[in-house]
From TrEMBL:
Family classification: Belongs to the ABC transporter superfamily. ABCG family. Eye pigment precursor importer (TC 3.A.1.204) subfamily.
Protein name: ABC transporter domain-containing protein
UniProt keyword list: Membrane, Transmembrane, Transmembrane helix, Transport
Recorded GO CC terms: membrane
UniProt topology in membrane: Multi-pass membrane protein
The organism's taxonomic lineage, starting at the top: Eukaryota, Viridiplantae, Streptophyta, Embryophyta, Tracheophyta
Organism: Gossypium klotzschianum
Amino acid sequence: MTTLTVREAVFYSAQLQLPDSMSISEKKERAEMTIREMGLQDSMDTRIGGWSTKGLSGGQKRRVSICIEILTWPKLLFLDEPTSGLDSAASYHVMNRIVKLAHQHGRTIIASIHQPSSEVFELFHNLCLLSYGKTVYFGPISMAEMLFATNGFPCPPLRNPSDHYLRTINKDFDEDIEQGIGSSSTEEIIDTLVKSYKSSEICKQVQHNVLKISQQKRGPLEKKGSQASFITQSIVLTKRSFINMYRDLGYYWLRFAIYIALCLCVGTIFHDIGLTYGSIQARGSMLMFVAAFLTFMAIGGFPSFVEDMKIFGRERLNGHYGVGAFVIGNTISSIPYLCFISLIPGALAYYLVGLQKSFDHFIYFVILLFTSTMLVESIMMTVASVVPNYLMGIITGAGIQGIMILNGGFFRLPDDLPKPFWRYPMYYIAFHKYANQGFYKNEFEGLSFPNNQVGGPPTITGDEVLRSFWQVEMGYSKWIDLVILFGMVVVYRLMFWGIIITVEKIKPLIKDYMAASPKKSSMILENPSSISSQLEML
């Protein structure tokens, strides 16, 4: 999370992963010890940083990620290029510390490594060389050189063995290898090494060990996951999310400034609206703007929420916490900010326009604005669980709200909506129906206006305006509209939770199906650039 410092990021992760039996001070000590082990003690109070603020370097961020993963001392840890972005000295110290942790706690570390120095290369015990989906070598790191030498590819003196191995088996740049077999292609060299390895004693020993291990009767594997309780996870995520929202200008502060500007525009355009017959239409237009376009601005925080979703996705798959804790944490942490951006801009618009002076009416106005804004955020959360990036999410969310605004009962009165689809069911699905009616009932009930219509009574009451002019359903009070909106907030947040859980279960099935497809397999073999030159150290 780019707005947190190194100390905060690791400490919050410690609280999420470590058991409740450990005290806060013990978790803090574990976090700071882990930071020192990764050589980040001088950057403890530096923010991680992102696109908007300068912070840690790429290599330091990578070390923070390693810190978060080794907090619980897992029995099996996979590190994907942990030394990328580090210089040779930092790479050695980081990997040396990881090796010491593996020895100290009896852990297994698997790492894909990028361009290791000879010192880093020697730290590993076992080596797996892959080229185009083929296992070129798997076994003790000291025996790899013998395999290459016996097949005519000895490592030249003073050359880094890892560089030599990769250069030999990389056919992205298929040039002649001047190692003793003339102009043989790299593909032929790879086939030679693969056949040699399969017939070697090393391969037979590996297969024997695999068979021996598979025949052992063991207990069930420990399930990787957080040892903290659900309540602890929810509390920690709420604190972390609150700090992130406070420090990220794009989450709420920029939106607050836009709200202030918009409400000043509304307040000056509709200033002191009065109680004339013409104010009926003006009041309805102003309240519709608040219910539709002011809440529409809630999509402005969507890019920041998408960044949170990326972090959630990684931490969720690593078992740090569940979907329920994330939803609760995000919901509770956003409430103070939503109250703030509803109260102050809402007060500006409300009193500049001159709506009903009663404090009860003003409180209802703010609560309804707050609920509608939270509802839009809930819709955007649901969108974020489906679309892959924030640009598509904003377009999708804007389209959904545009449809809801169109049939919310203002641009086309309810009785005039085409009954198939638009009246039933879209009119009742659109939250603007309940927001508009709540605002209208709150404002028009108890007022009276002069009647300019010929032959009519001299005055017209607010109830008559609601029934005839705005076609508002008067069979229930404005509080029912508020309750319905709040229920929609709950429904959309539950939809978000349900979609995340469903996707997690379906995605592996789809991947398995695609992997089993012959067409997919041939594509992997024909275009294996993602596997090419990949060196994995075990």
